[in-house]
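Support reply, case 0932

Customer input (verbatim):
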Amino acid sequence: MTEKKRLAGKTALVTGASKGIGAATAKALAAAGAHVILVARKVKALEAIEDEIHDAGGTSTIAPLDLAEPDAIARLGTAIAGRWQTLDILVISAAYLPELTPVSQIDPKQYNQAILTNVVATQTLLAAFDPLMRRAEAGRIIGLTSSVGAHPRAFWGAYGSTKAAFDNLLETYGAEVEKLSELRVAILDPGATRTDMRARAYPGEKPETVKPPEVVAERIVALLEEDFETGHRERVAEPED
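Our regenerated output:
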């Protein structure tokens, strides 16, 4: 096996795979030999990522859906179970960022969308893919979080509270399955990264002053090769000059 095919034979699913960290991770996983299931809302964006993967010699399947839509994840789980016996890797990258406001002024509609996307969809993903991931030889789940989940920051209450719940769900699930299977769960904080979400949160920031999504993607692939324990949590370091 070549260095580039170290994940050969693995099946991976990446949410938020149409852009940013999710897209970069999907391409990195495919380059390492995994067959990647690309999940996001926009069909054309997913097709563009799939074309890049195939042009580079990788394989992938697109699965356009809205994670917040009722029953969408359950239907996806059924479809995947009908094609694959196991799911080896799940990377939960998709997230919704509400407008940054004081807690007293949080927009209920946006907050509800953040809860559905960042929290409810996470639990639904874990429920839908639990059987497939437990059957994998060494299933791995990596959830992408934010520092504001563990360390509250002014005006970030809407997003931060959903990420705190996201972290809790993943860590609790990991504790529940670690004695029953080889499935392991890790939480990764990308840190400052050049994404559309970052640009919305920090509109005056120069994109070139923060690391590109590919740095985070490389760390995710490397982490998947490590023998980490459930409860592993880390922040992606800034690249050295």
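We compared this against your earlier run and they match. Two observations from our side: The CA atoms of residues 138 and 182 lie 5 Å apart. The chain has one domain: 3-235. Please reopen the case if you see a mismatch on your end.
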